[in-house]
Amino acid sequence: MGRVEGKVAFITGAARGQGRSHALRLAEEGADIIAVDFCTDFETIGYPMSTPEDLAETAKLVEKFDRRVVTVQADVRNADQMKAALDTGLAELGKVDIVVAQAGIAGMKGEPRWQSFTDVVNVNLVGVINAVSVALPHLTEGASVIATGSTAALMDVSKVDVPGKDPGGVGYVYSKRALTEYIHHLALHIAPEGIRANVIHPTNCNTPMLQSEPMYRSFRPDLEHPTRADAEPAFGVQQAMKIPYIEPSDISNMVLFLASEESRYVTGMQMRVDGGGYLKWYDVKF
């Protein structure tokens, strides 16, 4: 028996990166998957989004674990599309036990600057609320809601000069902080129903979002066109441990824990997988 055997997971942003990794880890441990992704580029975001082919590849990889998978292209910013996506999955798989609100974008250096802010907030915050809201009527005791925050949400940006101070970057920090507060309040109100909700805060994660020119420029603003080789030494500013980034699988292992019965009484938590990044910003508080 796998750790989430017989459960069904509804995952946004599932075509690649962290979302695909979460889908595969949960499938490996026995879950069937409803995999959702937009698979469309944003004019304001300076790196390409996933493609329909990426989403199809996620499905093939899930099926290698002999699990069922339903894929849907849908925009998390649109509640009607999220409902239709979930309904498609429910029609085939019959239920939903796990919600992983993973879809997110980074608007660092995005243009037009304030539209970049809006797009980031609509995906990272409104998209989480939409995905969770359409699933809530179908969740029963033992269900788990997991949202992806960011170590950026926990930083005191007033103290230091950090990457991402442009409007798109500010939108990223704001949206991740706001979704964190949303999940906190949600967890309190669904706890009597035996449903849990938690946030995972990754540090730099080795995905196409991090490995992109806008992110390189955020970490190396002194260069006009920095490369990965230029930026990677600066990635370490985010962590206390001597690492430039973590891997998607590091987050997926926390997703699995929060989705499983091993965390049956864990709710309203801010689970940091950050290489000690939080420790660099705050003293111990008792």
TrEMBL record:
InterPro entries: NAD(P)-bd_dom_sf, SDR_fam, SDR_subfam_1. Pfam families: adh_short_C2. The keyword NAD applies. Keywords: NAD, Oxidoreductase. The keyword Disulfide bond does not apply. Transmembrane segments: none annotated. One of its GO terms (molecular function) is oxidoreductase activity. Belongs to the short-chain dehydrogenases/reductases (SDR) family. This is SDR family mycofactocin-dependent oxidoreductase. The lineage of its organism: Bacteria, Bacillati, Actinomycetota, Actinomycetes, Mycobacteriales.
